[in-house]
Amino acid sequence: MPEISRFMPPETGRAWPPFALSVRHGATLYVSGIGPMGPDGVPKGDFAAQFAIVIGHLKRALEEGGSNMRSVLKANVLLTRAGDVAEMNRLYAAAFPADALPARTTCVVAALPVPDFLLEIECIAAVY
């Protein structure tokens, strides 16, 4: 049976909800929904700034789990404003390698757990 590894937030970090940031099972990495919490909090109302923070966190989570942006198999993007879909598509296309775009679902939701979050991204990635 493949080993299961859980990657938790740093003990010195802010208080987190009770879940692993990511879980690796064999050659698959499952990354929990990542929001735009930056070192100075959430850039309120600035979609591009929030997206940049989320992608930075996502890259770190993938690297910590033994993967990378080229190996993302499936991504789920949650947005709180339908008006951000076009900008998200533009930023998303720039964040992932053009020849390695993952399968994706995008949903516009009523709210996310942190009221100032405009988006959250979770993914499943291959580990090599």
TrEMBL record:
Q: Does the keyword Zinc-finger apply?
A: no
Matching Pfam families, A to Z? Answer: Ribonuc_L-PSP
Q: Name the CDD domains on file.
A: YjgF_YER057c_UK114_family
Q: Which UniProt keywords apply?
A: Hydrolase
Q: Which domain of life is it from?
A: Bacteria
Q: Can you name one GO molecular function term for this protein?
A: hydrolase activity
Class in the EC hierarchy, top level: hydrolase
Q: What is its EC number?
A: 3.5.-.-
This chain's protein is named RidA family protein
The taxonomic lineage of its organism, from the top, reads: Bacteria, Pseudomonadati, Pseudomonadota, Alphaproteobacteria, Acetobacterales
